[in-house]
Design brief:
- This protein is α/β, with parallel strands linked by helices.
- It has an eight-stranded parallel beta barrel, surrounded by six helices. It has a two-stranded antiparallel ribbon with strand order 2-3. It has a two-stranded antiparallel ribbon with strand order 9-10.
């Protein structure tokens, strides 16, 4: 199996255990469940070009990135340095994250929070809402057409926005009509290779009514300027910020 197949197989086991231990009614009882969500989409639009800054400790492609990361401190740093939103990896085995990282960040900042996860079942949406997320990532590479639409509609009923991620031209057809944001992932999740050129190859084929984000492989202000001129509304940046701490420099003139 390639890396993506391994992750999804592991996620199916995790979701089975989650369903065994918790019900959607359990998550409905959370204090955060009745909290009004903060719009990630509107935050991106209001920024002119928004940066979603990421919290992750490691990755299959990058290895250890910031294993001693303090979620509260990192979230506050992002809020103080111009981020439009925060993406939080909640996968434990492959990215070193936890669903509790969302709650920790939620208690520290007012920025919209995106649960970045391999979501394959609606119970993960309830879990995200209960933890304090405002939006969730749905990945075309792990969903079929019906699953993508069902999870998008379910997320909306919970007050969660959807950032729908694609990587290939064929996956454009899977984009739900009511997705709030679309992300072009410049990293091939199967081969774990990254190229920013991928965004430029796909931007002209994407729906015009949905703001589009470029994700992965973005490191410099020049990258951001080129993406903005190409028609992107924002970028999701993780590794380069976590390693270099240069978010303020990237956002200063946006």
């Amino acid at each position: 199996m390639n890396v993506l197949e391994q992750i999804v197989a592991n996620k199916r086991r995790e979701v089975a255990l989650l369903q065994q231990d918790f019900s959607v009614d359990y998550f409905r009882e959370s204090e955060n469940f009745s909290r009004e969500s903060v719009s990630l989409k509107q935050s991106i639009i209001n920024s002119g070009f928004g940066i979603i800054a990421e919290i992750k400790r490691k990755s299959p492609s990058g290895g250890d990135i910031k294993t001693g990361l303090n979620v509260a401190e990192q979230a506050l740093f992002y809020e103080q340095n111009g981020a439009s939103g925060i993406s939080i990896l909640t996968d434990s085995d492959y990215f070193g994250g936890s669903i509790n990282d969302i709650t920790t960040a939620r208690n520290k900042v007012s920025l919209p929070l995106l649960r970045k996860e391999f979501i394959i079942d609606e119970i993960q949406l309830y879990e995200a809402k209960a933890a304090g997320a405002d939006a969730v990532l749905l990945i075309a590479a792990v969903l079929n057409h019906d699953e993508a639409n069902f999870l998008t509609l379910t997320a909306h009923t919970l007050g969660l926005e959807v950032l729908f991620e694609i990587h290939t031209e064929q996956e454009i057809d899977l984009i739900p009509m009511h997705a709030d944001l679309v992300a072009v992932n410049n990293r091939d999740l199967k081969a774990q290779q990254t190229s920013l050129q991928h965004s430029f190859n796909l931007i002209g084929q994407l729906p015009k009514h949905i703001p589009v984000i470029s994700a992965s492989g973005i490191k410099t202000r020049e990258d951001i300027e080129t993406l903005r001129k190409a028609g992107f509304s924002g970028a999701l940046i993780g590794e380069s910020i976590l390693r270099e701490g240069h978010l303020a420099e990237l956002t200063r003139k946006l």
